[in-house]
Structures are given as C-alpha cells and as structure tokens.
Amino acid sequence: MSKKETKEEYPVEEMPVKVEALFMGPKSENQKYFKEMLDFLMDEHIHWRRDFHPEDRAVVTPEEMRDKRFQKTLDRTTEILLELSAKLKNSSTPWFSTRYLGHMNSDTLMVANLAYMATVLYNPNNVTYESSSATSPMEIECGRDFAVLLGYDPERSWGHVTTDGTVANYEALWLARNLKSFPIGLKKVKPSILRGMDEWQLLNLPTKDVLDMIDTAKKAGVFEEAFEASARGEGTGYGTLGKVIVPQTKHYSLTKAADILGIGQKNFVNIQVDSRFHMDVGSLAKTIDGLVKQKIPILAVVAVVGTTEEGQIDEISEIVKLRDEYEKKGVSFYFHIDAAYGGYSRALYLDENNRFMDYEEMKKKIRKIGAVTSGSDYPTKKLWEDYRAIPAADSVAIDPHKMGYIPYAAGGIAIKDKRALGLISYYAAYVFDNKGDLSTNFGSVILEGSKAGATAAAVWAAHRLIPLNVTGYGQIVGRSIDGAEQFAKSVNSMRTLEVGGEEFVVQPLLANPDFNIICYAFNFKTGTSLKKMNNLNQKIYDATSYKSGPVYADDWITSKTELNIKDYGDAPLAFVKKLGISEKEWHRTGKVYVLRSCILHPWIANRSTYPARWAKYLEFMKRTLQKVTK
Ligand SMILES: Cc1ncc(COP(=O)(O)O)c(C=O)c1O
User: Fold this and answer.
1) Which domains does the chain have, with CATH numbers?
2) Which residues of the chain, if any, have pLDDT below 50?
C-alpha cells in the first residue's frame, strides 16, 4: 500500500462524491443533467414496453387516436396536470431553499429522485419477490447497508425499508413483544427445555438467549405450538410482560405503538431528561431498580439518537453499560434505538472501509475532508462513545427520508439478529412461494403489505452512489452539523436586536447541541412575562409558516415546538433564565414556546459564504419582529 493510500492519508481529491453534484440545487443549478437523465430513463421505459414481444400488435391504433374523445381526454389530462402543477407551485413548502429552516427537510438527492421516477413506471410491489424481482433484492441490499452503517454484522442481521419511522418503531416493539413472551409460551408447551426456570427468569432472558431457545424449540419440533401459546396466540398479556421504558423526548410514534400493540399507555414509563435533553440515565437506573423490586419485568428500553424536538443523542454507551450490569444480576430487556432522525449521522464515524474510527483519527479526518470545518470540539468523546455503542442495540430505526435525503416515504429498520424475523412472520400461500425464505418475501415478515418498490430503488441508488461513511454521507451530514453549529453560534452571540425602537434578546436552547437542530426563542429585552414571551414567539412562527398563507411568500420559514414542565421538568429552566425569565415565572407558566430549525441543508456551512447568509437571516428575523410587534 502506498502512503497515499493509507487510511490516515485518504486523498481528498479522490473523494467519491462532490456534494454540489448530488442535489438539483436551490436554484435548479443541476437541471440540465436532471432533465437529460430523466428523459433518458423515460425513453428506456418506453423502449422496454416496445421491445417486450415486438411481435405483439399495438392496442391503441392510429384510428383510435383520431377519435375526438381521444383528443378530448388528452386535453383534459393536460388541464388537470397544469392545475396540479399550479397547486404544487402555489402552496408547497420550498424545502430546497436555504430560507427553509424548519422541519427535518431539505433538498433531496437527484439520484434518488431519478431512481424513484424511473421505477414508478415499472410499478414494482415489494410485498413479495414475485411482484418485485428487480426491487426486492434492492431492499435487501439497503438492509445490509443499514447494518454496516449501524455496526451490525450484515450476515447475521436483517434490515429493510419501511414506509417511515413510525412503522419502523412499530415493527421493533412488535418484535420485542413477541420475543419477550416466547419463553412463557414455551413453558406452557414444553417446560423441560427450560431447565426449571421460573417466570421471572424467563422474562429476563437476554435477547440472544431467547433466540437460542427458539432454535432449541424448533429442533424439538415445538416452536409453532409454543409460539401460539405466547403473546402471538394468546394476546398481549401485558400485565405480565412488563413495562416499556422510553425517554420523555420519545417520538409519539412509540406512544401510538403502545396503543396498537396493546401495551397500554400505563405500561409506558417515561424517563425524565437531563439539562442536555438526554434520557437521564440515573433516573433510568432508579426506575429499573424500582420495577425489579416489585418484580415487574422490563419489556424494552428505547433510546433516541436524534430527538425529534432537539436533535439530541441519548447516552447510548451508558444505557448499554447499564444493561450489561443488570444482565449480570439476572435482569434484561430488549433494547431498541429510535435513530429515525440521527441514524445516517453514524456515517461521519466510519472510514472509507466502513470501519468505526478511533476518536482522534475521526476528528482529524472529518476536518481534513471538509465534512466538518469548525475548529470546535465536535464531536465530543462522549458523543463518539455513544455512536460506537449503537450496535449493542437489538434493533435500530433509521429513516432515509430524513438524514438520508431520500424523497418520501422511506423509513428503515435494522435488526441485529435475523433469527428474530420468525417472531413476526405471517405466511400467505397465495402471495409467497417459499415459506422458508423470509428474507425477500417482505410481506411475510413486515408490518406493511403492498409497498412501493420505487422507494427501495431510490434508497438503493443513493446508497450505491454515496458511501455510507465519512467519504459519502459523512460529507453531507457533516456539513449540516457544521451549518447548524454556525447558526447556533450566531444566535448565541447575538446580544441585543434593535427593531423599531424596541430591544429584543434571542437565545438558543443549547449553544452546542449534539446534532443539527437549533431551538431558540426571542424575548423583549426588558420586563416581560413568560406568557408574553411565548406569545411573541408564537407570532413569529405564525408569520414564518403556512399559518401566514402560502409559505412560498415568506421571507424565511421555520417550525416550532413547546417544551412543558410536565414532560421536560426543569430541563428548559437554564434556557428561559437566560431570556430574563425567573424560576418562579417558569414554574407559574410551565411551558416555553420555541422556534425550531432543523438544519439539513449542506449549503449553509460554507465558511466564506456563511457571514453573508447569516446577515440575510438576521434581516429576515428583524423584518419578522417588526411585523409581529407593530
Ligand atoms: C426520532 C423520531 N422517531 C420517529 C419519527 C417518525 O418518523 P416518521 O414521521 O417518518 O413516521 C420521527 C419523526 O420526526 C422522529 O423524529
């Protein structure tokens, strides 16, 4: 290996992708390529139809085409499509624009859009291989890609593309429920396999032990019977299966899952977050201790990598340590990570060979290749440890339509041990050819039925073009984090804003967040209540969102959220204090309304253009403040 090729000296000039060539661009800069390629792909499809049995005669004849109603139908088609286009242009949200500083959106990848558009004409249905022989294998490849990105062994794990993060979370908890209850079913059917284990022991087996037990049950020919005697056949029995522990910051899809899976909201235990909006691991340990004392098992613990509201990364390494410690004491639980938002950011930590880099090596590399340009300490060692610990989870939700920059609807899940698939499998003879092959007959092992093969094609194409490591996705994710950091710094350093004779202050929720969401709030500089402050920020949101009419017309667009004392405790206290709100006032009002900017764009970070961009944002903000306070 020449020096140039060594890992430390990865040649930047040989980086596989240039970010500017990946997107259409805020001003359709890459439209020429996009249109040419789209045209080519449409031609390809047209030829495909023509070339399929050239001897078959055309059905739509020139004579039919001369019919008056034929032309009328096409005229009406044109009218409708023009109307559609007008509607789309009039009121769609311009995610592509750097004026958009709201939800988890930005421009999407050209390759994914083209792949999706091309594939949709073939209309594959990934429910089963029979209806998607081109795109089901792509979905399998995407699953392997997720595995590598998340640190799982691609040979032993399994993953696939879901509709969204919500479905990915449902699938994880569905699996956890069936897994947890299997030993109970087996006890009813063949207790001799269990070597005298009592119910408490059976409900506290590590995931791997339950999967081994399933293998044993299969060998003994009692799997089906035991499975039917578990939650699969008997219903949930949640009273005995125990609690699902989630952080207060969980996405509401998990709350919905509790309902749908029959867990029941009262069996969902919310853990308080700390001042950095991480699930408080001390509280988690106390909660587990309390449950264990009462002999209440823990069905699952869920942590979040990229919280929906703040983008924070739960302390995965601490949670994994905690699980290891409890396992030594005979207590275990299924561990799911909801990385629907943050999953792709693990790419930043993998070198060009997909190896998780050492801390110093990684920090050096992300700066060398320009993925992160700031001189700051990002990522902290702690954050690095948390990303490193991700593969210890039993499953991970990861959404391509968030940080994967894929068009909707594309979620994803990776499951560490593919043996678990049997626990959520359903076989339909008319759809599936091969009962044994659960890996490509998706419909038999996933929550959904019919599903667009075009989605899998879009994710697959993006993954083939952009390595899921620091040289590919790492570059995009890094730029987004960099942009967010610069934005947070600018907000943080803005002392006073004078608008129309009135002075305002503004404060980020966290000056150095873990990821790329910046929450912030404005306040009048002097003498104000939290209620008045909330009102001000609500008005700003109303003026910078769909609420003020077509978002197209706004100077800039943002999103918002509300942090209340019931969910967040005193975590937002330090923040409101910086905005001149007393502790007493915080407790009296009990909630703070914040503006929320998920900065996904790779375009904001550029150091040389950032000052001008920030000046523009400042101008927008001042105009908005003027508008809402006059
Ligand atoms: C952390 C987290 N999990 C799950 C979801 C649900 O994803 P989806 O909207 O794709 O269903 C979201 C959505 O924002 C999320 O932020």
Assistant:
1) 144-468 (3.40.640.10)
2) 1-7
